[in-house]
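User: I'm putting together notes for a lab meeting next week and I want to include a structural view of one of the chains we've been expressing. I don't have a solved structure, so I'd like a prediction I can at least talk through. The sequence is below, exactly as it appears in our construct file.
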Amino acid sequence: MVAISNGAQGRNFPRRWRPCQQNQICLVQSALLSFGDCRAFGTSSACKETNTAMQTNQPQYFDAYRSLKMDRGPQGILVVEFHTSGGPLIFTAQDHTDFVDAFYRIAQDRANKIVILTGTGGDFIPGIDFSSFGNVADPDVWSQVHDEGVQILENLANIRVPVIAAIEGRANVHSEYALLANVIVAAEGATFNDLPHFAGGIVPGDGIFTTWSYRAGAGRAEAFLLNPQPVTARTAHEWGVVAEVVPNGRALARALELASLYLKAPEVTRRNTRAHFIRPLKERIVREVGYGLSLEGASAADLVKSMHAES
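Assistant: Thanks for the context. Below is the predicted structure for the 311-residue chain, given as structure tokens.
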């Protein structure tokens, strides 16, 4: 490694490092280095070039999914926001398909050092468009729903860096995505519910029972899913599902603070800790979710049949 002298305070810097503005982290040729007051070096042009490179060097998959907004800062903290046209996400069949690939790509990308899942517009995932899934009594339709449902959770579980869920407002649909995080930070006004399943006439077999029974215990999960009612952030904290309850509007900010804290550990330590912590839940997902979705599909077909009979 060849060093170059900058003349200020007698410091030498490796060729692949360049000083940046005060208290910034400058990335040049894939190297990160934090400097103190380096305005004396007169290298603002180098910093501008670096910042431009950082802004344009975003993976193409970040913009590939209509209901996911992804942003990754220079430290490698990836924030994934669920949304529908910039507002709270109304979950659709297209999202079900897209999320399989999205979570696979996120897990595959080693530039992601920490992953934060959050919502938009004051909610996590408040609703679902059932009609977008088509005729769920059709075996071909349910076969796709079944396979994608398994793959989404397996791909989330395969993210090998710490995952944090930042929950504001309503997590009414697919709260199991949040429960696959290592840590959930929930705002005071956040609530968890399960709108799509038992109350609507179908089996909660898509992993919501697997994740809630793992985090909160089987008894609580069964009671919650048989008679779905909003579970407050405080109650979820008492159950051991939520790690921290923060004031409304502060969930993402606190998640970012935790992410910066986790980054102090070496990368291999971070990755292997996530792999170690998620393994028991991952094993249950592999064992249970495919079977659960088969049961859910049968109940969905029966529901459609009964609706047709009534009409």
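A couple of points you could mention at the meeting. The chain has nine helices and 15 strands. The longest helix spans residues 267-310.

User: Perfect, that's what I needed.
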